[in-house]
């Protein structure tokens, strides 16, 4: 199975059957093969965060199927979905959500420990990722001692720590100035390409979107290339 992500006929509606019902996804289909990086472009409120949450097993559709690495997880138990998120998926958000009381290194070690990796191996992996993202000298700094771009690079390293099949990113550089955004995005793409990772990256930045393999526009609850 070469498809890392397959979404089939997704439907999602908020306030269903009530006044103010909002239909966000309407028969949406998407397939991302191994190694492909796709940009997701949509205006605010169009449903891109909803789509990412469903693809990332953080939310469930009203109907349709979600397959990760060929496994249908649409109706899987909470335990199985949690296992799949830890093993197969990496998340990067617009705001880094780092744990403030832990160092950069520890923020990357913790999700690995939760996934059953031993501390020594987890620390080695964390140091490797920090070096690749230009933060080797900042390993012991807490988030408050890092710049915005450095914090987001730590968040990216954390997302990559468990060697996921699929990276999901929601405006990963949206909180950074244009210069820093270019640098951070370039580093992210370099690591993604090196590892052969698949990715679905939501962005408002059309220049960044144009550097990915595909550009998908979410409109009327469906995707248009």
Describe this structure in words.
The protein has 225 residues and is an alpha/beta fold. Strand 7 (166-170), helix 6 and strand 8 (198-202) form a beta-alpha-beta unit. It has a single domain, classed as P-loop containing nucleotide triphosphate hydrolases (Rossmann fold, 3-Layer(aba) Sandwich). The protein is 35% helix and 27% strand. It has 7 helices and 10 strands.
How would you classify the helix and strand content by structural class?
Answer: alpha/beta
**For the largest beta sheet, what order do the strands appear in spatially?**
6-7-8-3-9-10
Q: What is the name of the CATH class? A: Alpha Beta
Count of folded domains: 1
Percent in strands: 25-35%
H/E element sequence:
EEEHEEHEHHHEHEHEE
Mean pLDDT: 87
Percent helix: 25-40%
Name of the CATH architecture: 3-Layer(aba) Sandwich
Shape: globular
Q: Count of DSSP E strands?
A: 10
Residue windows where pLDDT falls under 50 for at least 5 positions = none
What is the number of helices? Answer: 7
CATH superfamily: P-loop containing nucleotide triphosphate hydrolases
Q: What's the main sheet like?
A: 6 strands, mixed
Rounded to the nearest angstrom, the radius of gyration is 17 Å
Kindly, what is the distance between the CA atoms of the first and last residues, rounded to a whole number of angstroms? 23 Å
Q: Looking at CATH, which topology would you report?
A: Rossmann fold
């Amino acid at each position: 199975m070469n498809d890392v992500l397959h979404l089939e006929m997704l439907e999602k509606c908020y306030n269903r059957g009530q006044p103010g019902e909002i239909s966000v996804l309407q028969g949406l289909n998407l397939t991302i093969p191994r190694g492909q990086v796709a940009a997701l472009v949509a205006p605010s409120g169009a449903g891109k965060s909803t789509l990412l949450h469903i693809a990332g097993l953080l939310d469930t559709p009203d109907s349709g199927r979600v397959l990760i690495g060929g496994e249908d997880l649409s109706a899987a138990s909470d335990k199985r979905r949690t296992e799949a998120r830890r093993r197969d998926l990496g998340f990067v958000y617009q705001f880094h959500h780092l744990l403030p009381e832990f160092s950069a290194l520890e923020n990357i070690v913790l999700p690995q420990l939760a996934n059953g990796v031993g501390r020594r191996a987890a620390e080695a992996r964390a140091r490797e990722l920090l070096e690749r993202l230009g933060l080797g000298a900042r390993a012991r700094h807490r988030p408050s001692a890092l710049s915005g771009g450095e914090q987001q690079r730590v968040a990216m390293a954390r997302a990559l720590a468990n060697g996921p099949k699929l990276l999901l990113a929601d405006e990963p550089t949206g909180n950074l100035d244009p210069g820093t955004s270019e640098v951070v995005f370039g580093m992210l793409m370099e690591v993604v390409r090196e590892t052969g990772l698949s990715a679905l990256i939501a962005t408002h930045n059309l220049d960044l979107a144009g550097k990915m393999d595909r550009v998908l526009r979410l409109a009327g609850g469906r995707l248009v290339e």
